[in-house]
Amino acid sequence: MKFIISSSDFLKSMQSIIGIIINNPALPIIENVLLEIKSNNLNIKATDLETTIIIRNSVESTSNMAIAVNAKLLLDTLKTFPEQPLTFKTNEINNTLDITSEQGNYSIAFLDGQEFPSTPNIEEADQLSIASSILEEGLTNTLFATGNDELRPVMCGVFCEINNTDICFVSTDAHKLVKYAHKIDSQISSSFILPKKPLQLIKNIINQHQEAIIKYNKTNVIFSFENMDIYCRLIDGNYPNYHAVIPKENPNILSIDRLTLLNSLKRVAIFSNQSTHQIQLNIKGNELSISSEDIDFSNKAQERVSCEYDGNDMMIGFNGKFLIEILNTLKSDRINIFFSSPSKAAILKPDIKEDTKSEILMLVMPVMLQQ
User: Fold this and answer.
1) Please, what is the average pLDDT of the chain?
2) Quick check: 25 and 48 in contact, CB under 8 A?
3) Among 177, 317, 323, 358, whose Cα sits 20 to 30 Å from the Cα of 140?
4) Which pTM does this prediction carry?
């Protein structure tokens, strides 16, 4: 094997896939990346057995061969080079990959590429093409609300629902819930649960691409971009009926500047109990009182902010940490908060006047106030 590639192009590809590499895995070969040359194309492949990433690069080569190289060692080496062409050549006698740069020569041990796990073969798959910006918005708004309880794996992922009119992303950890929907034209109707780890990787690289092609069947999904394919195994199970936890009647509506509320919550939350993070909202007329107290340490805080409110006076408690996460994720200048009663979930939506193709709903469960 011999090929020539730009050091910066190779580094960029390695940085995109290094997040999938596991340290000290049960199968040692997956600490490596697979370098596969096929007629002037270098395919770089990494896997953790649940997710597989393949990145394609154009190179100067006439070889057809595949080898596995330690991912961390290769990445650390590439980081040290200024922009320049690098020449890679295998030495079959010593089983090393020799690197030639303007600065010197280096050798990295390699393994036979045949030992590397094979790529999943997705058969009888449906396919959907969407703008990358839609996928990016969906992931940005939902990933933070996924659960971490390994005993409830379906809640550790993002639920994706596709129908003829829109694509919908939903996530929940039983304390907060997010639903992001965007209008699309689709000939298919389906739903599946996407695992969190590959979605984090996609979120980090997606702004480099214009379009995403999603191909899926009952067990796997492929996200295809211009020069990259990400294969991941779907989470098996039935997603909770999220519609059932969204209150239908919410007559009490509060409208407020998002940053004003966010900054006030950040200050008041400092004084809350560090185990419960409980804060109290007391709404009377057009004034919102935000307070917290840590009885054990005699710490407390209270702030008053102006708002627009249509409804009955209300006192309700929340986990301040969850509210801050939601307000950090929403990007509109103003938000509307819909209340049903102090014992039911509150719904937060951006206050957007113009008609858009997307809709965001964020829900947070209340907590029982300490008397």
Assistant:
1) 94
2) yes
3) 317
4) 0.91
